[in-house]
Amino acid sequence: MYLKKIPDEHDCGISVALKIVGGKWKAWIINCISKGMIRPSQLHRELTVTSPRVINIHLRELEKYGIIDKIVHPGLPLKVEYFLTETGKSVLPIIDIMERWGDNHRQPVNEPDN
Amino acid sequence: MYLKKIPDEHDCGISVALKIVGGKWKAWIINCISKGMIRPSQLHRELTVTSPRVINIHLRELEKYGIIDKIVHPGLPLKVEYFLTETGKSVLPIIDIMERWGDNHRQPVNEPDN
DNA sequence: CCGTATCCAAGGTGATACTG
DNA sequence: CAGTATCACCTTGGATACGG
Question: What pTM was computed for the model?
Fold first, then answer.
């Protein structure tokens, strides 16, 4: 997302927001967690097109930014559960409006894909 | 933005929306045009941190997706004016909500930038 | 003034194999 | 089950110079 070197005068809120929803699967992951798919294995099953590594990178970043947090249950097999923080929940309206807009404008945007 | 090879079952509205606001300067450009900075030279002056080439790439893409359109005035020196289409205007609320969210959550997101 | 071509650096993503 | 390391690839962004 090439957003790290933006000088201060252009580091607007959009840059900040894009750090959260800008990744290829970040918004998708946030949506899944908000819907109760809180275990990594569930995410992997839903997102078979991607490797666990990429999902984990996104999870680490969302964690770092305070969007999600996790509970590690002791014992074997391992059990980890992610959940949205309050900050994370505040992102849902953004994802929602983006999703609705995209669904309503799929034609003009997706068709010229040459 | 690596959004081109997303399989259909995951090609949700978010992917579509990110094609519009996902680029490093796309949302910024849309904002500028909506505020009346409609000539390329104005955009270049506002965005001196970037080369004209990058701005033009974004403009071409926004044009391709029907977000902006342009009027080419004949004569020399050349004069071009961009404007938002109706579709483009419908993007403004998304940019607005992202910008506000980002401004309100700058701390937790920006600080862990290690 | 406007736009593009070329070359290049860097970041994001993907496949696999591996450890605890 | 959960997570990481290494590899290679593709996309994006950036600097410069040039043509309409």
Answer: 0.88
Q: Tokens 């910024």 belong to which residue? A: B28
Q: Quote the CA–CA distance of B39 and B101 in Å, as a whole number.
A: 29
Q: Which pLDDT tens digit goes with each residue over B63-107?
A: 999 999 999 998 878 999 999 999 999 999 999 999 999 999 987
B35 touching chain A per CB within 8 A: no
Gap from B8 CA to C14 C1', Å: 18
Cα distance from A50 to chain B (closest Cα, Å)?
A: 10
Taking Cα atoms as reference points, which of A30, A105, A17, A6 lies closest to residue B20? Answer: A105
B60–A contact, CB cutoff 8 A = no
3-state SS class at B86: helix
Domains recognised in chain A with CATH numbers: 38-106 (1.10.10.10)
Residues paired with residue A97 on neighbouring β-strands, in sequence order? none
Distance, in angstroms, between A76 CA and closest chain B CA? 32
Cβ separation of B97 and A99 shorter than 8 Å? no
